[in-house]
Write a structure and sequence with these properties.
single chain; alpha/beta; Rossmann fold; six-stranded mixed beta sheet; 7 helices; binds flavin mononucleotide
Length: about 210
């Protein structure tokens, strides 16, 4: 089993990474493989609503990691998305990345893969950013994995984050909870069929 961890921060080894690494270490201890994708400071275009992905399953823009990520996540069993908090939301490059990633997978490619969001902030806005990230999972039939508190760490440097003992424990609990759910799903696959899906209804609020 494998969990993909997307680090939305421009800092590959920063605060968000410090939190994600704590989750990843527990997953590895539990026998679950992990792989990081770092958004870094690459240029990420926003979704232009061209709807090409509805036909191809991939984004029309091929010059960043979105399409690679579609393939990696299709093969992975679980997902964790980490973001620094920028103005009480996830950082803009990550949102551009996730809009295109999830829009291209609207057909249900990621359904039933457990997912969780993790945020890192200096002081405030963590729960608003956390809520925004969870929206991607809850529109995609992805079971959301929780912890003992909302998944946030506090700090402006990795050293400060490591001093947030409660935050780091929240990350470890998240890792154990994710591992438990992945093992439950793996066991259930042999006996419990995935839910049947009705044809999609889209009313756009107009009858
Ligand atoms: C543009 C920008 C906006 C920020 N907005 C917030 C904020 O609203 N609340 C907060 O607590 N920290 C804010 N911060 C601080 C970062 O969220 C915080 O330092 C975070 O832990 C950095 O994570 P990283 O090292 O993974 O990039 C902001 C930082 C930047 C660069």
């Amino acid at each position: 089993m494998k969990v993909l961890l997307i680090n939305g921060s421009p800092h590959a080894g920063g605060c968000t990474y410090t939190a994600l690494s704590e989750v990843a270490a527990v997953l590895e201890q539990e026998g679950i493989e992990t792989e990081f994708i770092h958004i870094g400071s690459q240029e990420i275009r926003g979704c232009t609503a061209c709807h090409t992905c509805a036909k191809t399953g991939y984004c029309i823009f091929k010059d960043d990691a979105v399409n690679t990520c579609i393939d990696k996540l299709s093969e992975a069993d679980g997902l964790i998305v980490g973001s620094p908090v920028y103005y009480a939301g996830p950082n803009g490059a990550l949102l551009a990345f996730l809009d295109r990633l999830f829009f291209a997978a609207k057909s249900g490619k990621f359904a039933f893969k457990p997912a969780a969001a993790v945020v890192s902030c200096r002081r405030g806005g963590a729960s608003a950013a956390f809520d925004r990230l969870n929206k991607y999972f809850t529109i995609s039939s992805m079971p959301v994995v929780s912890s003992q508190y909302w998944n946030a760490v506090h700090g402006n440097t990795p050293a400060e984050v490591r001093q947030d003992f409660e935050g780091m424990q929240i990350m470890r609990t998240l890792g154990h909870n994710m591992a438990w759910l992945l093992k439950c799903i793996d066991t259930a696959k042999k006996t419990v069929p995935y839910p049947t899906k009705e044809p999609r209804i889209g009313t756009n609020f107009i009858r």
